[in-house]
Write a structure and sequence with these properties.
Length: 207
């Protein structure tokens, strides 16, 4: 629950992706653990704040999770020239009381009995078709997500076939120069260790 006595403030962090900047708020932008990824202005009908961000000509993508959002820019401009403008816009907009994000589609991802729960995941993962896919999603949520969120990114499950796990990289992870290392040395190594009989490789698919 939001503390309405706390004023909206934003501070700015760099990310491993030089095209992506992370804007961290003093309050939750999305509650209940939700996330959202926007690749163009047509996807922002239920997100007035994000719609306004796409009115900046340099905005290429926006990812939102909890109390932060990351903006990926087109490379015709440097962040040094615009990040203060964006930070001031975010502060003014949020303090105005206008709606931020009105709605997020969500789905329940069932997990197998080992996890003994049904986990609500917002817009990210493909629905698992079997026990192995459910375990892959749980691994991404419990072990990978906390680490990549610190850098303003998200890695989500797309499919699993013939031992190959396909994921999608969002936010700062998308297009990041170090994403290949994260994929192979991090995610692939972890999944092979936890599911050695099932997982042979992890690959990334573009959004």
């Amino acid at each position: 629950m939001q503390n309405n006595d706390i004023p909206w403030e934003f501070y700015v962090e760099g990310t491993p992706n030089p095209e992506t900047m992370k804007f961290v708020a003093s309050k939750l932008i999305i509650e209940n653990g939700g996330t959202a990824n926007y690749l163009n202005i047509t996807e922002t009908k239920q997100a007035p704040l994000i719609q306004k961000l796409f009115e900046f000509p340099f905005t290429k993508a926006v990812f939102v999770s909890g109390n932060y959002l990351t903006i990926t820019k087109h490379n015709f401009i440097n962040w040094e020239d615009v990040f203060i403008e964006v930070k001031n816009f975010l502060t003014d907009y949020t303090r105005s009381g206008k709606p931020l994000i009105n709605d997020l589609p969500k789905k329940d991802v069932p997990v197998d009995n080992e996890f003994k729960e049904t986990k609500t995941v917002y817009t990210e993962h493909a629905i698992p078709k079997n026990e192995v896919e459910a375990k892959i999603i749980e691994t991404l949520e419990n072990y990978i997500r906390p680490a990549v969120e610190q850098d303003g990114g998200l890695i989500t499950f797309k499919s699993f076939e013939d031992g190959v796990v396909t994921v999608q990289m969002r936010g700062a992870c998308s297009g990041c120069p170090s994403s290949t290392m994260t994929l192979k040395a991090g995610i692939e190594a972890l999944l092979k260790r936890l599911l050695p009989e099932q997982v042979k490789e992890v690959v990334s698919e573009a959004l």
